[in-house]
Protein 1
Amino acid sequence: MQQMMPHYLLKKDRIDKFEDYFSFLSNEYPSWVLYENILYPSVSAAFQASRSTNQQIRLQISQIDSPEELWEIAQEIEDPQDWGEKRLKIMEILLRDKFRRSKELRERLRLTEEKYKIKIKKKKKYISDRQLIYSYENETPSDMFWGVCKGRGYNNAGILLETIRKDISENQDMKKWMLTKFRIEQDVKLLPIITLKVSKNGQQIETIILKSRSYYYLGQYKTCNVLLTHPTVSRLHACFVCQETQKILIIDMDSKSGTFLNSEIIESLHDKQLQNGDQLKFALSTRTYEIFIDYSEANKELQRRKIQLQKDIQQLRKVNQKNIPDEELQKLLGFSINDTLFVSNLPNNTSQTKLKKYFSQYAKVKQVKIPFDKKTGRQKNFAYIIFENQDELRSAHLKTTTHKIKFEGNDIHVKVADKEKSSHLLEVCDLESPQKQKRHRSRSKNCEKKQFRSRERSSSFTQ
């Protein structure tokens, strides 16, 4: 049944008290939350449990009945060393899980976004994006981080609720819940090949091969990776997830008639690890799906990377030696430009200023050059980072090749510039934008005009 907001609340531009009708927005509101295979009675309970690595304490928290009891246990837990970095991510996981498990709460959260009316110069105007503000009475560092007190605070909990609300409205909440909750393998080369052998009445009728994806949807939706056509199957019934640790999980996506692993039902929105030879059934369908997982190609890639990493480490150790001859350095790194890095896979229309600022954290940058295509005039997706000297180049190269480098969301590739390749690229590229070239041409023309006029004047004076 669709929930409706009280009529008198429709004109409010913000919700800053999570009480009465809006008490469901509070972290203390009773609602099931699953975190690391333990079910908790509220977001607040799961959040406090996540601070502890002791399984007994976590289980104890999962059984509590009151906020007072939770507070007593929470006071005895010390924050982990990296808690400041992890807490926002954990809170997002818990809040998404809370609303994923309750259709009623999802709908109530979505309705808080509905347009409200205000009067501007006697005219009614509709405005959306109602603010959700988590208000606190005490100005503690924690309360100021998650909410607002006396008009001051970061309101991170309220912002997370607004983000989830937007995802619900755009039908993205299921996908975001899954991506935040599970450590999904994103590297295509490290993904397995999954084979499903489909049988009916003891006879194999089909073989389905799944590869090159981090997760696969199963259900009646035409967009699902595995179509399940039985009428009792839900539109989005289940999902396979490939984790970073070479584990394949199956998740029941809140299906109506259930998902069965080796004849045992999987709880709604719970996950189970799959093994070779496991058998799956969906709803009341008589078809059996036997699963086989092949990580052989991924393991070959891991071994290749391990060997390459060992070579790179040896090479970097040599490069990092002081007073290494230039010839030896050139032999090791294969470069001829002594102070320049070549950076590729840059975002479109990258700013030279931003790129210079980014690489300045590694070493002293002298100049950044981003070429432009001579034919189209468009900016290329690579650049040359020129450093103050060879020592600065060595420092930057060492720091940027030992870990992944991200610039404005892109995984960029960094290597020492090669003279021959660079000269070939510059044959088809300009180092200045067409706009700058036009300005330079106009300036040069103006200078020529001024010189011509001055010559005319001088000649007239001599006459």
Protein 2
Amino acid sequence: MQAKSEKMQEKREEMQEEGKEMKKELGVLYEELDNLEAKIEEMEEKEKLTEKETLVLKKMKSNFKRLKRKIERKSKENQTKSKNKNRRKKNKTKKSKSKMNR
């Protein structure tokens, strides 16, 4: 029984670490995205952008947005998994308590 709780604690800590890492990655991506947008605006203002440079920058911007969505989706999936796991655990304990009361 104690081994199970230790394993659950380890998994919980692992998921928390993953969440923290994802938040850091997301923060970095937001920062890079903001920098890119500022760079694009600055270059467009100076009218020094060639078509090729514009395409490259737009491609980079779309890649960052895609990565950002991917990280957010993973984060939501992990939250949902933990909520479902907690719900199942709660239901399981309710059932076992009701059996003991009979």
Protein 3
Amino acid sequence: MSSKDRRELEALVREERTLTRRERLAAEASGEGRSTIYKVWLKICAIFRPVKLLGGVLLLLLSVLIWVSMLITGIDKAKNSFCKGRCGYILGHINIFQPINWVFTQSAKAFPVDYILMALLVLFFFSSSISGIATVGIRFLWVRIFQIRKGRTAPQALLVATVMLALIILAINYAIANMVAPQYSIFGTQTFCTAPTHNAGETPNCKGRPEYLVQCSEALDPEALKVCTPSIMTEFLNRIAITWPFFGALDFWAQFAFLGIFLVVFVTGLFRAPKLNVSELDEDAEEDEEEGLLASTGRRFGATWQDITGRTKSKSTYGTQEGNTGAGSSDV
């Protein structure tokens, strides 16, 4: 056989192994050789697949709503901030209707609906971040350094992913408090009475006069700030922005960079169909086979060594009847 024919034969053998491996993976995915419970679970997943699709569409609409809300807040801050870049674009009060902030301020009237919505929003941000890291992997620009794969993630990749998630949590805190729901995150549903008083130092009374009630904001007078109490997180972030204006401006404009990247990825995902990485599946299946062969080789080597030495693996039988019997026979 010539060298050319030998190379073609080896290529055909590799292709045959790949096709056999794919056939085995397809059979495993269809539940062949699995228990009845697993097959029932596959049928349930197939039945609820439309519900899963509907849930994905709803989450996509939620992402678009969050994007629009962040863009509105960013434009409002860039245009109407009373101190601009000197204090990190702190906004005195909301001038443009912001949907997410309105939902939270209205739901706060029915405790604890706002707490539940906020927990779901944070969970959505965090789970989306984890899903993105698992899909994209650990990269430097467009260069992939590590991959996040089930059962095959390198320890270095797990360490880097943990650090990235810690930094993402900080970014989520800033985004929610200053961009997603700024009014709710700072003062919630707190209001201040602006009714005129007859005497100096008299406490204003808005009982029966709701038109004098205004929501607490950063632009109120000092007397209002004695009544309105900001949240600890927003006060901490605002103090950083005022003390170090560079970091405040950097965080603010970084939100626009995030919005731009999201828009590009969103439009690209609408017109580009997802591709199945068949080569990665083949590599995973090949690694599974190699691990199985190594495990079986280790067992065969152990059995051969036991046949040569005439010994078996000793088991710890301390305090058992078998151990006592063995000790008695050795004495005899």
Protein 4
Amino acid sequence: MRTDLSRSQRALAGSVLNGSTSKGKPAVRQWVTRQKAACDRFDQIISDLRLAGKPDFAMLSVAVSEAKVLQGDTGA
């Protein structure tokens, strides 16, 4: 699961930066603006994990799956 998440994070970062004419934080801001609904959904999942205190495997699996959705939903 950690490996999946790490791969998704790397792929997402690359997609965000490659899909923009800007670099760094401005590129991320542009992407977040374009993908507001997906980002809001991911933020809610992370908030739920924090509230759970000790998330179980199923909850973590949902978070990793949602990270993969973000990766594929770059708008590029």
